[in-house]
Amino acid sequence: MQTDNVQPPVTNLPEAGAVSHSTQQDNPARDFARAFFRHRSAVIGSVLVLIFIILAILAPVITPYDYTEPSADALAAPSAEHWFGTDDLGRDIFTRIVYGSRISLWVGFISIAGSIVVGSLLGLLAGYYGKWQDTLISRLFDIMLAFPSILLAIAIVAMLGPGLNNALIAIAIINIPTFGRLMRSRVLSVKVEDFVLAARAIGMKNSRILWHHILPNCWTPIMVQGTLSFATAVIEVAALGFLGLGAQPPDPEWGTMLSDARDYLQLAPWTMVFPGVAIMITVLGFNLLGDGLRDIFDPRMKQ
Q: Which UniProt keywords apply (predicted)?
């Protein structure tokens, strides 16, 4: 008696390599890192920003001199002992620039963080609720944007009094409309999406819709704008310092250093060149980083 050879059914199982490949393709963090390191401007900008962050953190280790005390003759030219020379009081310029990076980065971070929080909250309320809330908040933004930003900052500091903290407050205030209008426009487009309409249909509270559905989908442009506004904040704090409204002596703020050195431009040009270059490189780094992030997060750039 012969029996037929019964073969077990063959099932088409996915290969392990295909599964891992699919997982890698669906990893947002890996996709972002790959796109980031392929973008030359973003990499260069992040390196420049990282250099100044390291300088700010390691300032006491990197610099051998006190930024408030004379360490050589006044207006000494750059040398092996003083890489960037000395100012009119004999203070090492390299030391003051390194410590000045702490002030610029600190003011930029705190002021822009405050602008993002306040501006995003106002834009969120205006864009979602509309009606009189939208009208009131939008007109407030229009009034603030009617003035040149640096002129409005000067007016605010003039009322509050000169000082670094008041300059920080002024920079935070003048940047609120930028983030508020950006958040409002984003909310207007997100609140008509199907997932938001479905959340309303099932009776979800407005507060939950705002914080759990709308706000997470609005952070990308805010983050990009925050990076670009950081560069603007560095320029604004330097401008206020140059006018004598920001950091006060002996704080080594870059704008204040430029103001102190303007009388020695022909006699000792390095006293103005090096602080100016520090401002330029910092602003360039944040601008390149912001442009890179904007290109990475733009869906049209992925085609």
A: Cell membrane, Membrane, Transmembrane, Transmembrane helix, Transport
